[in-house]
Amino acid sequence: MRSLPPAVAELIAALSQLPGIGPRTAERLALFLVQGPKETAEDLARALVSARERVVHCNICGALTETQPCAICGDPSRDISVVCVVERPVDILLIEKAGTYRGRFHVLGGKLSPIDGIGPEDLRIAELESRIDQEPIREIILALPTDVEGDATSHYLAKRLSQKGVKTTRLARGLPAGSALEFADELTLARALEDRHPLDSGSQP
Amino acid sequence: MYVAHLRLRDFRNYPRLDVDFSPGFHLLLGDNAQGKTNLLEAIYLLATLRSFRGASSEQLVRHGQRWYFVGCNLVGPARHDIKLFWSATQRKLTLDGQDVRRLADYLGTLRAVVFCSEDLQLVKGPASRRRRFMDLLLSQTQPTYLPTLQRYMRAVRARNALLKHAIVDEAALDGFTNEVVRAGNEIMKQRRNLAPKLGEMLRLAYRNMSGAPEELRTIYKPSVDGDLAVALAQSRQRERVQRITLFGPHRDDLVLLLDDKPASVYASEGQKRTIALAMKMAQTEYVTALTGSPPILLIDDVMGELDNKRRAGFLPLLELARKSGGQVFLTCTAENWPHDLALDLTRWRVQNGRLSKVG
Asked: Peptide bond before B147: cis, by omega within 30 degrees of 0?
């Protein structure tokens, strides 16, 4: 390392801050950038700065956007009576990919995690409550992760929002669609068995 | 199942070991501090990813080195190749060349039961020892047990962190209480199912070994008699003071009674030893019954502690393991190796981190 120019060492240090980039990869990327065509580095630098400057959180739902409000919140054809609560902005993309949801979103920005010192006041819950007060929302769909923290957060939200007189639902959990049983882990299978539905009556909840 | 090949690199006092084992009986002979127990520890480590001596991973690295490696070829209904590498910055466990992502997917691949002097703590020690005994049995035999237990412990830790705050957020606490209750109830259900079956095996094992009229009974004692949710709701005042979760499976016990009196208090030293041995025999029997083949038995110098009567009660188990294609490793200092064992055993001399066949 001591034979590298300080500027390269600095670049390596900056790159190692990125998620999933270890010291080796950071070194490879840095050496590529300083030795390759100048335009590559300049294009990257420009893209970085402009993306960072243009991308903001939507004032309403908290999604990543370049416009205020975001494309989904500003879309008049979306159903404004349903809001789907997710942990991270990227979760919106996942649900949008499924293509069947026509309501709007709300990004919580995390989940309750006392071990990491994250409490309700660190999440965008007050924002969600003021949306419920101001928008004609009938149903809140909780689409949080199913780990301990995610489930505890769902439970917490369901209780807190019940005072607002709004219907709260949670995504069903069970088998992945279109796959054999062997691809489900034991806990998922056990839960899927517990939450089984009758087939004949057609009266699924 | 049996370990066909064992490979150690910089593990404990072994710089380098490559050795083939046949099924059946292996006697590891040698003076103290030559590495007999370290060999058992390596096999047990592959079974449970823990040291039965409670050693940390750093302590398993050979003195002055930075990492260790333990690997084995396992022959059972199927053949498996297990590799475990540990260093301060990297740990890697592979099964048949694939990274092991979830512990629950791996545990049970190599099943082993260890008999050692530490076992006495199962009787004398705190309830945590007996909980771990139940957990080990259930995670080897019930696929949903370990993930549920991990989920439970995570929920309890989160809940305890909330209780440490100066002002406890009741609603958030409620969210995690809900998780504690759900996973906790499942764990208690599994432990409640285990106790009678295990208790009966324990009773018989004890009777065979002691030859005495006293009766050993095993009772699962959960931290709550009734509903966990109700108990937690009722203990909120006390939890506010003590700032930890006061009820739940992390406070359970498995109570051992000898003629209806607590064995931890009233049993003699000899009786305690016999109970500890009976617990390990019951564990062996339980795992064998559920999986159809005996686990690998690792016996660390306990034969010397047994009188003839108890030895006679113990030996049939070893014979059974041997006959059913299993494997038994037994450490002994030269002078006390059990001559009453069957003759077809492989003898190894262990000397300063090296292994050589005798005779």
From this structure: no
Size of interface A-B (CB pairs under 8 A): 64
Alpha helices in B170-327 (DSSP H): 170-210, 228-234, 236-242, 263-266, 269-291, 308-323
In this structure, are strands B112-115 and B98-99 parallel, antiparallel, or unpaired? unpaired
Burial class, A172, CB count within 10 angstroms (exposed 0-12 / middle 13-18 / buried 19+): exposed
A115 chain-B contacts, CB cut-off 8 A? 157-158, 161
Shared-domain flag, residues A70 and A158: yes
| Domain that residue A39 falls in | 6-54
Nearest Cα neighbor of B146 from B272, B218, B49 is B49
Q: Going from the first residue of chain B to its last (359 residues), give the mean pLDDT of each consecutive group of 10, the final group possibly shorter.
A: 95 96 90 92 94 92 95 92 93 93 84 91 95 90 88 95 90 93 95 94 91 91 92 91 94 95 92 92 88 89 74 79 83 68 78 88
- Check CB contact of B154 with chain A, cutoff 8 Å: yes
Shared domain check, A134 and A83 = yes
Instruction: Tally the domains of chain A.
Output: 2
Chain A residue with the nearest C-alpha to that of B153: A148
Question: Do residue B158 and residue A160 have CB atoms under 8 angstroms apart?
Answer: no
